[in-house]
Amino acid sequence: MRVTWWCYSCMLVVVVSRAAASGNVTAGPSILSHEDISLPGHVSVWVRTEGADVEDPGCHVPHITDVTQLRRCGFNSSARSFLVIHGWSMMPLLDTWVGPLTQALLAQRPRYNVLVLDWLELASARYGEAVKRARRVGRAIAVMVESVEEVTDHGAERWHLIGYSLGAHVAGFAGHHVGGGRIGRITGLDPAGPSFETSPWPGGRLSRGDASHVEVVHTHTALGLAPSLGLSLGSNLGFSIGIRAALGHDDFYPNGGYTQPGCDLDNAIASVQRMGIVGLAESAKCEHERSVHIFTSSLLLRLSHHHHHDHDHDEEVEEEELTRRRSRGLSSGGGVLTGFLCSSAQAFDEGRCVSCSGRRCQGLGQRSLRSARHVSQNPRTLFLRTTSSAPFKVYHYQVRVHLSGHWASVGGSGEVTPSLRLSLHGSLGSAVNLPLNLNGSLVENSTRWFLVDSPHALGDLHRVHLAWHRPPTWTDLWAQLYTLVPWESGSGEEGGQAGRAGPTYLHPQRLMVRKVRVKSAETQIRYAFCTRDYLHVELRPEAEVTLHACPEGWVHKRDVLRMRRLRKR
């Protein structure tokens, strides 16, 4: 068994890529009629119930369109329904993530219908064959949805399809065949890339037309392609399985969508040392499966956030809460995983995209606050950072460092390339030695933008420390000695100007910091930090400066009111 897992994990990407390129995957929509849903294998549904053990598969519905058996299993036609769809499988076994995800769904409201689609007999074939079968499975789901609607008046708009990898496209095929975007919602968890990355025709992969609201989470995507190797490059481990293209109304890219914390080569080696060869299989799917774990955590964080604010869990109260938050202009609370609208991962990492105004942020896994028309006409790409383990939540802070002029630097060029670190201190805690990732040099009279994050909320910020982490150079040491010796060049024919301070290249590097501005992305509160005399302060290598909150007059009135409300909590 372990040898089999190891072989599959090593050959996973090559097998998938070759299958996609060999012509095994046919293009074009399914030609099945409404009545013809014959499949070359068994497809069934398991109905999960509240309180059951995570390993309990639930009540079995052997035939996917058997509405009578579905009702015997406790299907509630007046409640919303979730259908969890697994992807291509190397072994005919449900993945371990299925149980925790279904339990998280049931925890939202026990009366929800939570179903798991079992198409393992079809999904455990060669990848190319599984892709062809996936289209037929999607058609079968569409017939099931329509059959339930005919018998129970449980409309398509009450269905939320959640598909992982190839299962995400199965959900898309189902929505496409139901038609008209009538399916209420589809969540695609790192949709499979091979065979779908460049699919040009409607209905050929998950797309925003398949449901009223389509959200997609990308965690294992490619930055570039290596066709000669049959590999997509860009992840921590050198290949990718997910699709890079934006497919939905809201596409989330945690950590840029291609490198996930805790899934690098060092952790892969540690997994092999701890678990043996099985650890290699776990590492191979680490980034791909991270999408499922992030989505599951988003559900649990949302539940915790509601409990914290003492909200009842009926739909009427939820609608009131959505209306209240619309009026405030916020799309997400501070306790949930929040994505921010941005043009690229680079711009996000530079701290340029942390606004929630104009519906520019969205809680992952949450209902959109936008109107249906706005959703369909304005698809969004949203970025966020996460930690390496559940609950994955971080708090984002935009940092702007304002530099003044008239500093001396090595060579007298007015440019410095320091290694800066920032420490934030707030009413709820501190985050120290956060690196400010700098692209290029700092120049005089400029402002540089950064993004930092903390795994815990810091509350109301009251001071920051800015440090320059670089060991002094020999030039710095010589420059310091130069200032201690009364150098004079003398006078006369061979002399210069008496008392001259010496050549500028002997001056040590330094920065003149005028102000630091910080904006909390989760609370949207902005802070300004200054020196005690509100003038610039000098920062040298291996030194640190402390900046305190500027007078309230230096901060926008709206942010002053927000800070006062935060202090009262």
From TrEMBL:
Gene3D superfamilies noted in UniProt: alpha/beta hydrolase, PLAT/LH2 domain
Keywords from the UniProt entry: Secreted, Signal
Alphabetized PROSITE patterns for the sequence: PLAT
Transmembrane feature ranges: none
GO molecular function: lipase activity
Signal peptide, first to last residue: 1-21
Ranges where the record places region Disordered: 307-330
GO cellular component terms listed in the entry, alphabetical order: extracellular space
GO biological process: lipid catabolic process
Family: Belongs to the AB hydrolase superfamily. Lipase family.
PANTHER family in the cross-refs: ENDOTHELIAL LIPASE, LIPASE
Stated name of the protein: Endothelial lipase-like
